[in-house]
Specification:
Layout (H helix, E strand, L loop, with lengths): L6 E6 L5 E9 L3 H9 L1 H4 L5 E3 L7 E7 L7 E10 L3 E6 L2 E10 L2 E10 L5 H19 L10 H4 L3 H12 L6
Antiparallel strand pairs: 1-2, 2-8, 3-4, 4-5, 5-6, 6-7, 7-8
Helix pairs in contact: 3-5
Length: 174
């Protein structure tokens, strides 16, 4: 498994969507974490998508999923990029907001992910958990590569899905 559960919450948004909030502390400086979150060469090592450009500046981008035999290309717009503290962009219909705060010995990463369907929140939490495990491996110099799709199951995705569902009080659905 990929370590203890991250701190999570799920709250309704005004537009009927749901916001997953996930917090993970990393033992690396914000500047390094920022680079891993924004640069295409690093994204392909941990994220469920690749980008056609750096996400470190506002503007249009294209994100391509890497978790299936049929990659899906989705438009993205980086609306805020305030290195090394805040990154916000769309991923299709979802909004991702990454906050990086300095803490003793590293960075407190807080991800806000706006999701249409509440029943998907535990799935998304499990997916991001595995992705952030891959981020840690990359930052530690021991990359595991993107653990998405079937590979995520090898890193405990099924158990993580159930545990996040229980933690968030959301029934597991197929």
């Amino acid at each position: 498994m990929t370590g203890p559960l991250n701190e999570v919450d799920c709250t309704p948004e005004d537009d009927g969507r749901w916001q997953l909030v996930m917090v993970r502390e990393l033992k690396h400086p914000r500047e390094l974490v920022w680079t891993v979150l924004t640069e295409p060469d690093h994204l392909r090592e941990w994220a469920p998508y690749t980008s056609d450009r750096s996400l470190a500046t506002p503007g249009a981008a294209t994100l391509t999923t890497v978790d299936s035999d049929e990659p899906e290309t989705l438009p993205a717009t980086v609306s805020r990029a305030e290195p090394p503290a805040l990154l916000e962009y769309t991923w299709g219909d979802d909004l991702l907001r990454w906050e990086l705060a300095p803490i003793d010995g590293g960075t407190r990463l807080t991800l806000h992910h706006s999701i249409e369907d509440r029943t998907w929140v535990p799935r998304v939490a499990a997916g991001w958990h595995v992705c952030l495990y891959a981020v840690e491996g990359l930052l530690d110099g021991q990359p595991i590569g993107p653990a998405v799709g079937d590979d995520a199951k090898k890193h405990g995705w099924d158990e993580l899905h159930e545990r996040y569902a229980t933690t968030l009080g959301i029934p597991v659905t197929d």
